[in-house]
Structure formats: structure tokens, C-alpha cells
Amino acid sequence: MFNLEEELKKLPDNPGVYLMHDASDAIIYVGKAISLKNRVRQYFQPGRNVSPKIERMISQIASFEYIITDSEATALVLECNLIKEHSPKYNTMLKDDKSYPYIKATIQEPYPRLLFTHKRKRDAARYFGPYTNISAMKETLDFLIKTFSLRTCNKKLTEGVTDGRPCLYYHINRCSAPCQGYISREEYLKNFENAIAVLSGNVKTVINDLKEKMSEASSRMDFEKAAVYRDSIANIQRISEKQKASGNGDEDRDVIAMAVSDDEAVVQVFFIRAGKMIGREHHYLTGVYGEKEEDVIASFVKQYYADTPDIPKELMLPCEIADAGIISEWLSSKRGRRVYLKTPKIGEKGKLMELAKKNAELVLMQDAERIRKEQERTTGAMHELSECLGLPDITRVESYDISNTNGFESVGSMVVFENGKPRKHDYRKFRIRTVKGPDDYASMKEVLTRRLEHGLRDMEKNSGFAVFPDIILMDGGRGQVNIALSVLNEFGLDIPVCGMVKDNNHRTRGLYYNGEEIPIKVTSECFKLITRIQDETHRFAIEYHRSLRSKEQVRSVLDDIKGIGPQRRRALMQYFKSLERIRDASIEELSQVEGMNMAVAKQVYEFFRSDVHDKNGITGEDNDT
């Protein structure tokens, strides 16, 4: 039994991270502290001055744990990792999980390349980006590779060593074939440096170089080559003009501003590289009601830059934030060079900050209705369901279904919704093992029993089977609910179970809970959510059942033929692509398949023309019901 007073006395005077748990042992808040002893005790002191959100969190704390670290910087990193892993209810959470691409210049290679990548690694390569306009980035990348005849293959090339024959890209004038020595390494590197110059925004030298080549081609009367240089110059100028100048310096910086409405916030980020704006993006944060601007910005910076390798020299923030020194130290460590946190108020930088804020406000205004509707159909619908059943806030729902055709290949599905949204990573499917024939009740009992056994066995984990739902939703009414309750009772678990009552047209008209039918309005978000859960559960079960039936058809038709094993079955399907074409093939055609001989080909041919195939009642069609 957790004794709060005793545990508070044991708190060490060390830096670290603390985790607050509710009565169901779920992690509801993660924080860091210079002194765990002082910080955690503050939550339980009379007259504490905290926001309404934190006050609600404190009222739900049933226990806490902590992890000691050797420094506040280490605690900051651990805090970021734990927030990302557990998504605590009362932490300000970054909702977006965007991954913008980069152009990777493999400058460490003898004949370097330009590559498209979503991941920036700590290697010797040079990265440009991130780019928020992916199509424009791909257009630029393709243009540079084509214009400067850069290779795209992954061959390991050595100067003076040729490799095979030139590929198609050489013949269509998209590669200078360094693998064949058709271009010297010195000339290839010059082309590559020009491409890097364009990406860096230093196009003047490149354009002058191309103008000289265009002039030389014209003097030689090679007007076709001159036209190529002319078009290249025009394209480079067009690409350069797309990069809007946003300052008179050459620093790399991110400009961060925020707009807030109730419990939602939008953070706008401008990416400025080498003094030019290369893109922007916005992110949504939840759980900001009653929070101070500096706390929300600090939460964003920690969560966003925890997984972003492209850390600039300077972060321009709308306000001073707590722990600025330790955050700067952490970011500097990740970047490998000093990172500065600044809050400009006047001048060009102040105007840029105001521009970012106006953009954030615009996004929030435009998306306000979308955000409201999304909240209504997800967490709002969950809240309606909680009120309808008289239960505490429901976060996680599990729904089950059985699918079979007259008892053939019976399967069960488990679908999970959290906060009104499907959590597909936690979906599970079951192949019924112990039940023969179309007995949905017995099949459901097996599915629930296996699910709970897995969950109790894996209690130390925090995902999938190891996390139990707030409520179980059954597709049927009283019968299905009673089956679920009996299984839960066997395991000594107290989880609410709710069934769906159908009308004469098999449409849900209400919920069956605690022995009573509870009507629900068909126009309510709660009803729409239940319908989505029901449809998703059916879909998941039917697709699994269909896949098993399809495999069974292949097995029964081919594996029942004398002389056909797994290898020959695969060879037949790869060669003919369908059972119908195997059935219609001649002995000679069948014998052409790898691993087949005339004797086995004859066995296959005769099988499809015998009574055995008809008695099996199996065709190549998948007639799902």
C-alpha cells in the first residue's frame, strides 16, 4: 500500500524525474526537478499556487515514483523521453508527428551524391533542409542532379577504377558516368560544388560559370548545348527566387511563436537557413488551458527538438522561458555547437517574431472549427459515452467480433480506440482453436480468455495486451455481455462491459449495460463513435477471415495433389498467377514450371478434371459473406 506521507519523507535531494500515477497505476504526469525532495513536496503542500489543470492532476495522484539522475541536463533528456513514451494525460503534449525531408550531400564519398532522406544522422554528410514543400524539394533535387550530371547509384567508386558498363542514366544525359572514368574526379567535384552552391543560395558564381560555358558553346556554333546552359541559368534563378530573404545575416535560426485558444495552442516555426526562409510549419499542442505562455513554449521546445536533428544556432522565442540555461546546454550538446535562446522585441527580428505570431493566429482561426469538430467526434464522444453509462471518464475502449462462414476458419478480432481514435498498433486478431462449428458465444469466450491471460502475464509492459480498457464494447446484447462478464469474473477483473442492442433491421438502437437497455440518440456523437468502433471491429475480423480463407483455398486445391509440396505450389502460383490459369493449363504448359516434371504435371492436369476437385467444392473465387 502506497503511504504518501512516508514516501514524501524518503525523497532524495538530488536532480531527477518524477512520475505521478493515478488509481489505475497509469502515468498521468512526468516532470523533472533540480531537487526531487523540494519539487515533489510542493504538490502536496497546503496553499500551493498551481494552475487548475495541475490541481486536477494532484487530486488524482494515487502514487508516485522517481528516477535519480547525475545532473539536471540528464533529467531534462529523460523527461522528454518519458513524456514521449507514456503521453501523460496532464503534460502539455505536442500532437504532430511530422517528419520533413532533407537533401543529403554525401561529401565524404570520393564521388559524392545528393540524396532524398527523412532522417538526419550524425555522420560526415552535409544536410540541407528541412523542406516543408516536398514536391518543390524533389523538383530542386532532380534539377540539380540533371543539370550537374551527378550520379545517383550507390556503387563504391574509386578514382581510376572502372566498373562494368555505363548505365541508362549516362545514355539519357543524366549522369556523367564517373564509374567509367568518362569525367575526371576534379571536374565531377566542381559540378558537385556548384550544386551545393545552389542549395546554399550562392548562385551568382554558378550562374557566371554557366554563362561562360553558354558563350563558349555559342562561339562554337553548338547552339543546342548553349540552349541547355541557358535553360539551366533560368531554372537556377527561379529556384533561388523561391527562397525568400528574411534577414541581412547568414545565421541559421528557427523563429517560434504561439497562439492559444482554450485548451488548444498552435505553435508556428519559421526555418531560416543562411539568412533565407526555406519553409515553415505549425504544430498543435493540447492541455494548455490555464498554463503560462513560457511553460507551454518550454514544453514545445523540449518535445520538438528532442527528435529533430536539425538544430540551428539560434532559437527566437516569444518570451523568456524557465530553465533556459539548461535547455540551451542540452541543445548545444545535441548540435555539437553553441545554441542561443533569444527573445527579440524590436527591430527586424522583432518584426519577424510578430509575423510568425500572426501566422499562428491565422492557423488557429482557420482551424478552430475543425479542431472543435474533431474534439466533439473523439474525446467529446467519449465523454458522452461516460455520462450515458454513469462511468468516470472513459479513455480506452476495446471491442470484439467473431467472423466465420458456417464455422469455417472462425476468427476473432480485438479493436482498440483511445480518446475516440483507433489505436491500430494495439489491434489483435485470434484464430479460434477450441471451438468447432458456428458457436459465436464459445468463440468469444475463447478470445476474451486468451486476451486476459496475455494481459495478466505481460503486466510489466505498457502497451497492447498489457493495458486493460476502461470499458469493453460487445457487438451483441445480453448474451455477449454475459459471456464477457463471466470471463472477467474468472480472472477477478472488474471492467465494465457494454453491449449493443439491435432493432429488427440489425441497426443499433441502444446500449445494454448493468442489465438495462439505455437509449442513445442516433444523431449524437456518442452514437456515431460507437458505429465507427462497430464498423472497424467488423472490418478487421472480416479481413482476417478472408485472408485465412484465401490461404485455405490455395492449400486445399494444390497441397491435396500428389507430388505437390510447398516449393512446387509456390512455383505454380508464381508462374500462372491464379488457380484458374493452373486449372486451364495443358500438361506441356504445367511441365514448363521450375521443379515440375511430366509425371507431376499430369497429376495436376488430371486432378482438375476429376471428381475429387468437384467434391471438395472449392474454386479459385473468394466468396466472402
Q: Can you walk me through this structure?
A:
The chain folds into five domains: 4-91, GIY-YIG endonuclease (3-Layer(aba) Sandwich); 102-245, no CATH class; 253-366, Ribonuclease H-like superfamily/Ribonuclease H (Nucleotidyltransferase, domain 5), CATH 3.30.420; 396-548, Nucleotidyltransferase, domain 5 (2-Layer Sandwich), CATH 3.30.420; 559-616, DNA polymerase, domain 1. The longest helix has 43 residues, at 347-389. The strands form four sheets. Strands 14, 15, 16, 17, 18, 19, 20 and 21 form an eight-stranded mixed beta sheet that branches. Strands 4, 8, 9, 10, 11, 12 and 13 form a seven-stranded mixed beta sheet that branches. It has 20 helices and 21 strands. By secondary structure, it is α+β, with helices and mostly antiparallel strands. Helix 4 (72-86) packs across helix 11, helix 8 (204-219) runs antiparallel to helix 9 and helix 12 (347-389) crosses helix 15. Residues 243-249 and 611-625 have low confidence and may be disordered. Helices cover 45% and strands 19% of the residues.
Number of helices: 20
The CATH topology of the largest domain corresponds to Nucleotidyltransferase, domain 5
Largest sheet: 8 strands, mixed
Number of domains: 5
Give the termini distance in whole angstroms.
53 Å
CATH architectural type of the largest domain: 2-Layer Sandwich
Helix/strand/pairing category: alpha+beta
Q: CATH homologous superfamily name of the largest domain?
A: UvrC, RNAse H endonuclease domain
CATH class term of the largest domain: Alpha Beta
Number of strands: 21
The best one-word shape is flat
Give the proportion of residues in helices: 40-55%
Q: What would you report as the Rg, rounded to the nearest angstrom?
A: 32 Å
Mean pLDDT: 82
Q: Give the DSSP E fraction (strand runs of 2 or more residues).
A: 15-25%
Low-confidence parts lasting 5 or more residues at pLDDT below 50? 243-249, 611-625
